[in-house]
Amino acid sequence: MSIEFLIKIHAPKAVSAEADSQRLTKSCDGIGRDEALAALAHAERAHPIGVAVLRARHLGDMIALRKLIAAYPPRAVLSMAGMLCEPERMLRLYKRHHPYGRREAKRARELELQGDHDNAARVRALIEMRCQRDTEGGRCPACSGTGELTKPKPHACPNCHSGYIASPELLTTAERQAEQELQHCYGDAVKEYHRYLDMAKAA
């Protein structure tokens, strides 16, 4: 829960709005804002790499992300930060293969040709929203998660693996080893963060 509280107090809304900031002075388990920040600083001194992963992964800290990428294989860092995904590919497949996506993409193009840019933008926004819903969990938009296409005759879908499109795998041994190292550092940092909070609550 304390990691969730840390995310909340680093959210832009919480930082920019004083009223929200006041409501976030304590978490539901009694952790104070100052205690959470002190715990993070303590963990950072003990495990700087792990806290950098935590910052990139949970707090959207681009400075921490750039520092990690400068020291580790980028794909390993992006994987640990939860950023190794393919939303653009999903959207392309959705507009090409999914009945709704294909129909509405055509409609958006027609609206653009007619000069109705506002409605075209609205249709595209709806396509993206539906794509996120229909492909939740990596479900392939080409075969709707079945793993098989029926035309011109039944065959395995070439766009996915058993109906799902996973994030690109780490290809090299160095990338996999780097991800394991980052995972270990992250785990140590989280443990140190919680250990500090436990000591603060017991004091």
Describe the structure.
The structure is a single chain. The chain has a two-stranded antiparallel sheet. The protein has 203 residues and is an all-alpha fold. It has helices spanning 2-10, 12-16, 18-23, 33-46, 48-58, 62-71, 74-80, 87-97, 99-113, 117-134, 173-202, and strands spanning 148-149, 155-156. Residues 12-24 have low confidence and may be disordered.
Query: What share of the residues lie within helices?
Result: 55-70%
Order of H and E elements: HHHHHHHHHHEEH
Low-confidence stretches: 12-24
How many independent structural domains?
Answer: 2
Structural class from helices and strands?
mainly alpha
**In percent terms, what proportion of residues is strand?**
under 5%
Task: Report on the biggest sheet.
Answer: 2 strands, antiparallel
How many beta-strand runs?
2
Query: Which radius of gyration do the C-alpha atoms yield?
Result: 22 Å
Distance between the termini: 20 Å
Number of helices: 11
Which strand order does the major sheet show? Answer: 1-2
Shape: elongated
Q: Averaged pLDDT, please?
A: 80
